[in-house]
User: What shape does this take?
Amino acid sequence: MKSGFLAGVLAVTLSVASAFPGAAQAQSNELPACNESSLWSVAETLQVDALGSLRLTFLCTPDGWLLVGASYCSITGSCSSD
Assistant: This one.
């Protein structure tokens, strides 16, 4: 059961990451500017829906934002991170 849940979280994470340019790299309106002054800084986004919340963690690299982690918590209290 837990592996099925983790597979679902991974699928959500991959689908969100694939929506960004460069696979898991992003320059989004939700993220601050990623430039020389913020190089190697970390930013997070939070997406909430009726089933739970997804928190994505990004690292500012010389090539732009890079997705480095994700955590999902369902409304039932089950949480998983990657």
User: Anything to note?
Assistant: The longest strand covers residues 64-74. Residues 70 and 82 are 5 Å apart (CA to CA). Residues 1-7, 9-28 have pLDDT under 50 and may be disordered.
